[in-house]
Design goal:
The protein has 6 helices and 6 strands; from the N terminus they run E-H-E-H-E-H-E-H-H-E-E-H. The protein is of the alpha/beta class. The chain has a single domain (2-173), classed as Rossmann fold (3-Layer(aba) Sandwich), CATH 3.40.50.1240. Strands 3-2-4-1-5-6 form a 6-stranded mixed beta sheet, sandwiched between helices. Helix 1 (28-43) crosses helix 2 and helix 3 (87-95) packs across helix 4 (112-120). The radius of gyration is 15 Å and the shape is globular.
Length: 178
């Protein structure tokens, strides 16, 4: 059995005057949320034997905050294909994971991550899938399991076993009230 954990980068700052979307940093709420999710990952004793991440600034900063709460270094390979990738491109990245890896982490962006979950997990009476379909918020983790090799992963072949949003851990990290 293989386990794929998907992590969306934490909340980034739109007010920061950067020239490129790629360079947007996290905001204060994003940093808090990522550290909280890292602590939650530590409490679950999650471990990964392979990790790939987008090299975007907000992903790199998310990883730093996750690691501070997690208490471990993740040290993913940075893969530019993950930056703003479609679900199909992300699946291509996953298909190339090393065969010996059993627990992998992919850190990236929406809508690609959300679309990947919805593609891999069959539509049905699954409250976790419904929650992802409703919204895959920043700094959220989705954990999927499937039988076979990474190259076998295809539409409808995975089970969503966990979906954790920052607001599930701390209500103050939920959507801003407008």
């Amino acid at each position: 059995m293989k386990t794929l954990t998907l992590l969306r980068h934490a909340k980034s700052g739109w007010d920061d005057p950067v020239a490129r979307d790629f360079d947007r940093p996290l905001n204060a709420k994003g940093k808090r949320a990522a550290a909280m999710v890292g602590r939650h990952m530590r409490s679950l004793d999650l471990a990964f034997d392979h990790a790939i991440a987008s090299p975007a600034v907000r992903v790199v900063e998310t990883l730093a905050e996750i690691e501070s709460g997690y208490g471990r270094t993740i040290a993913p390979a940075m893969d530019r294909r993950v930056y703003l990738a479609s679900a199909v491109t992300l699946l291509d990245v996953v298909h190339a994971f090393p065969a010996e890896a059993t627990r992998a982490l992919l850190i990236g962006h929406n809508p690609g991550l959300e679309d990947l979950v919805l593609m891999l997990v069959a539509d049905g009476a699954d409250p976790l899938r419904d929650a992802v379909e409703d919204k895959y918020p920043t700094a959220s983790i989705a954990e999927l399991e499937f039988e076979g090799d990474w190259s076998d992963l295809a539409a409808g072949t995975a089970r969503l076993t966990r979906f954790v949003r920052p607001r599930d851990l701390d209500p103050t990290l939920g959507p801003d009230a407008d």
